Amino acid sequence: MGVEIRVEGLTKRFGSQVIWNDVSLTLPAGEISVMLGPSGTGKSVFLKTLVGLLKPDAGAIWIQDRDLTQMRERDLYEVRKLFGVLFQDGALFGSMNLYDNVAFPLREHTKKSESDIRKIVLEKMDLVGLTGAESKLPGEISGGMRKRAGLARALVLDPEILLIDEPDSGLDPVRTSYINQLFIDLNAQIDATFLIVTHDINSTRTVPDNIGLLYHRHLAMFGPREMLLSSEEPVVRQFLNAQTIGPIGMSEEKDADELASEEGQELPPLPPIPLQLSTSDGTPRRGERPAGDWCRANGITPPPGSFQSQNAGVPGVRHSEPTPTAEAPVA
Description:
Elements: E1 5-14, E2 17-27, E3 32-36, H1 43-50, E4 58-63, E5 66-67, H2 73-79, E6 83-86, H3 98-109, H4 114-127, H5 143-155, E7 161-165, H6 173-190, E8 193-197, H7 201-206, E9 210-215, E10 218-224, H8 225-229, H9 234-240, E11 248-249, E12 252-253, H10 256-261, H11 293-297
Helix pairs in contact: 3-4, 3-5, 4-5
C-alpha cells in the first residue's frame, strides 16, 4: 500500500548555488508521478533529498506524519525501508550474479532464512521477466536487463514508495515501451507510490497520473497529467511538446534578444493528449482516471484528436477506453 509524500517549501543549495527553491507538492499515495526538467535542474538531487541521502537547506518532507528533514539518522534508516530505488544504470554489483544482487537488501536488512530469501528473489525476478537469468553477471546482459534486475532488487523489501531515476536512459524505444508497461503493471500489483525522473516525452505523455516540471530553480507546475498536457504555460507547453519556441534555450534560459526575436511567431498547436497506458490484463489502478475526466471537470477543451487510440488493432496493446466527447467543447 503506497503512502503519500508531502513536500513543503523544500530548498537545496550547494554552496552559493541554488539548485531549487521553495518546492511544494504532494505525491498522492499509490499513484505514478513523473518529474521532468531540462538537464541540470536538480531532478536526481530531488530524488536523493526525498530518500534522505541529501539534507535540504529548508523545508519539510512529510511521510506518515513524520518530517524526514528533522529525523535522527537511526530513525531515518528505518523510514528508508519504505523506499525502493532504481538508479539510472541499475547500480548492480559487477562481481555478483543477478540472484545475489537482488538478494542483497534482504541479507543486509532482514534476518530471513536463505530459503525464504530464495522464494522472494525468484518471485521478484519473475515479476520483471528475468526468470532463468539468476546466474548471469551484470556484464553479461543488456542494459534493459540490468535495469530490470535493479528494479527487482528495489522491490524485494516490498517498498511503499518507489523512486526511479531515468529508467529509459540508454534504452531503445522498444525496450522503453516494455519498461513503461512494466511500471503500469507493477503499480497495479503492489499499489506503491511511484516517482519517475525522465526526459522521455512519450513516456511522460502516456505513463503517469501526475506530472511535475522543474525549471529555473523552482517547480514550474505539478498536477494531473491532463492538466499539464493541455497547459498554455510557456515553459510547460514548450518542454512537454518538444518545441523550440519558448523560454528554454540551449543553456536552460534564452536571453532577451532570443525571446524578442520570437515575438509574433505563431506557436504550433498543442498535440492531441494520448490515452494513458492501462495494465496488460485490464486490472484497474488506484490513480487511473477516465480519459478526459480532468478536462471536463475544469472546463478545458482538449486539443482535437485527444484520447483516440493510436494502437487500435495492434495485438497485445491495451489502452483506456476513449472518451466519446473528448473533442467536443467541455461544459
